[in-house]
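SEQUENCE-TO-STRUCTURE ENTRY
===========================

Backbone structure tokens: a row of integers, each naming the local backbone shape at its residue.

Task: work out the structure tokens from the sequence, keeping to the layout shown below.
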Amino acid sequence: MGRLDGKVAVITGGARGQGRSHALTLSREGAKVVVSDICETIPSVIYPLATEDDLAETVRRVEEQGGQCIGIKADARSTEEMNAVAARAVGEFGRIDIVVANAGIATANLWDEVDDQVWDETIDTNLSGVWRSIRPCIPHLIEAGGGAIVITASSAALRGQLGLVPYSAAKAGVYGLMKTLSVELGPHSVRVNTISPGATATPMLHAQTFVDLFVGHEDATLEEMEFPAGATQLLPVPWLEPQDQSNAVLFLVSDEGRGITGIDLPVDAGTVNQPPGIPPMAAERIAELSAERAAAS
């Protein structure tokens, strides 16, 4: 018996990364899943987005482990397309019990490089798109007698980070959306929460542009990225895995989280709780380099 037997989950941004991991995890626990993804480029995004082949691979992998999955090419920014996703889920599987609003993009621009296109495309995807993904599902959650919504927020909304002005603004807006929806939907037994991932090993984080930003020069390697990425966290890891985020989602949507609504669950290896000043990991490295320099002089 799975923890989600008989449930139907709608997951946006499900073609790869965290979304694919969520689909596989919820399916293993018995849920039927409907995954959507834009599967197109967005002009302001500086790394390759998922493709229709990626979406098909998510479906294949869910089915390979014995689950049921529908993959739908749909843009979270489009009310019409997200309405169609909800309608397809109910038409094929009869109900909706879980919504994981995971679709999101990131850009890397300092404030004076953020033009209207960068701002609008990020806000439209990461905030408005979250709302447009959730809204058509809510009546079905209520009709089902209750359910759970989990929105992917970010530690970047809780702690200032360079180059993420529209991204952080959108993710902060997601908190307000979650808080208000939890109040309005609580009487209907619909629980609404967010998770706030820290650095997580996805095609977004490991895109060459972001690797170069972490390391400080072009054509940097993942090996070079490990130290600066790890220095942002309290736990001794450079980044988390998508499964770490999926474990949190599973907890929040299952009966184990039945008493939890209106909260944010950071899954960030301690990023948000990093004390001010030089991170301990970086301080150790500075001390080692100082000692090596002193010994050599």
User: Anything to note?
Assistant: The CA atoms of residues 142 and 188 lie 6 Å apart. Residues 8-206+235-296 form a domain with the Rossmann fold fold (CATH 3.40.50.720). The beta strands are 8-12, 32-37, 69-73, 98-101, 147-152, 190-197, 264-267. The first strand starts at residue 8 and ends at 12.
